[in-house]
Amino acid sequence: AQSVSQHNHHVILSEAASLELGCNYSYGGTVNLFWYVQYPGQHLQLLLKYFSGDPLVKGIKGFEAEFIKSKFSFNLRKPSVQWSDTAEYFCAVNSPNLGGSQGNLIFGKGTKLSVKP
Amino acid sequence: DTGVSQDPRHKITKRGQNVTFRCDPISEHNRLYWYRQTLGQGPEFLTYFQNEAQLEKSRLLSDRFSAERPKGSFSTLEIQRTEQGDSAMYLCASSLDRTTNEKLFFGSGTQLSVL
Lengths: 117, 115
Prior knowledge:
The complex is a heterodimer of chains A (about 120) and B (about 120). Chain A has about 120 residues and is mainly beta. Chain A is about 0% helix and about 45% strand. Chain A has no helices and twelve strands. In chain A, strands 2, 5, 6, 10, 11 and 12 form a six-stranded mixed sheet that branches. Chain A has a four-stranded antiparallel sheet with strand order 3-9-8-7, with no helix packed on it. In chain A, strands 1-4 form a two-stranded antiparallel sheet. Chain B is mainly β and about 120 residues long. Helix content of chain B is about 0%, strand content about 50%. In chain B, strand 4 and strand 5 (about 45-50) form a beta hairpin. Chain B is globular and about 40 Å long. Chain B starts with a strand and ends with a strand. The interface of A and B includes residues 100 and 108 of A.
């Protein structure tokens, strides 16, 4: 079965620090990859997604992620975090080759990011 | 607000009782999903509707769980004979089947506590 691993449970950074959140998935075939974010008191929302093409994907609010197929990774990065980036970040994956709907996502356990002002 | 809405926001029930949750997706969205999220975990897929047809069900969806989307608009998720292990956040999401780059829009969820 597919699985998604997020290595960090809780990351604490100061404003202006650089961010990298790790995400690894287990399936070796074609995958679609996502990062969702949940700000305090809000619903989950899409940050960025990768389906094909350029493995460096840019999302909202200055976030980007790089798909490295050989490492089964899709790490999230931001060069300089802000206090408003405090949230929980979820990596998710699905595969068109495994059947199932496109919205049937396998999520990681999430990483809580706390940014100190 | 024209996002996905879920009702109620919180539900406390006693073990063995039945509960029902409602989800109203974004109006033009034809796809609707239910997920469950427990503490410290990411969301887990439960079931998927395209219009009124339930096309996919997870193994997590035991016989005590039933979901409907009778007119292809709102959906209900019922849990019969609740157990303490059913305590979780139940999330609804919707999307529009227009492209292959499917983006899910999530609601705020219904937090279920089974005592």
